[in-house]
Amino acid sequence: MQDLHSYQQLAQSVLGVSFNDIHLLLTAFTHRSYVNEHKKTVHEHNERLEFLGDAVLELVVTEYLYANFTEPEGVLTNWRSALVRTESIGAAALRAGFEPYLRLSRGEKRGTDRARAQIMANAYEAVIGAIHLDQGYEAAKNFIHSTLLTTFQEILKTGSWQDPKSQLQELVQSRDGHTPQYKVLSEEGPDHDKVFTVGVFVDGKLKGQGTGPSKQSGQVAAAEQALRVYK
Asked: Which residue among 50, 54, 108, 134 is the active-site one?
């Protein structure tokens, strides 16, 4: 557990600002589960700050892409999606050293890697919201530029801005001359809470499979697994 002085040090060394109200930053790192475990002493979690930070993040990224590139709207939209998705901003939070500052319940600390990635991404957005409230839009913009937008050239280089299904189709067609085919392998659960398992096949051979709450999400998960096999 970090004290208030540690959060102020984080603000100055990593965020590049000195908070007027350090409790805003403390709240940005406070998960709902932590409030539930400390109801007598902690009363606010980071979800409202996350809501604000999400809007600021999207605006900053949109402005950056509009100012620096002349590609069509569809391409810019895909690039923006790649920058603001959970994996990208969660990785930015990890690089910035946010993890030790997260205030989580004991149960959440033992959660899955996927759950932790989501929590890290949410905290990143909440920190943006806290900076925006305490220091203003330009300070939040500078933080996003220094921690996230510096990765954009790598995203372009690797082609990771494309969605997994598009990436897989391009890869398979260039290597094998076939188009991936998706098939639902199983459906489980009641109508309101179904889980679909989907397989992706190339020339009749199973190359990956994934699960999700919809056929589309299952296809994306299957494509992601197949990409790992191909690469």
From this structure: 54
Q: Say if residue 139 is in the same domain as residue 172.
A: no
pLDDT tens profile 2-53: 688 899 889 988 888 889 999 999 999 999 999 988 888 888 999 999 999 9
* Tens of pLDDT, residues 112-150: 777 788 899 999 999 999 999 999 999 999 999 999 999
Q: How far is residue 36's CA from residue 43's CA, in Å, rounded to a whole number?
A: 9
Please indicate whether residue 163 is annotated as part of the active site. no
Residue tagged active-site, from 50, 108, 125, 134:
125
CATH number where 133 lies = 1.10.1520.10
Domain carrying residue 121? 4-158
Is residue 125 annotated as a catalytic residue, yes or no?
yes
Number of Cβ within a 10 Å radius of residue 43: 10
Domain boundary among 158, 174, 205: 158
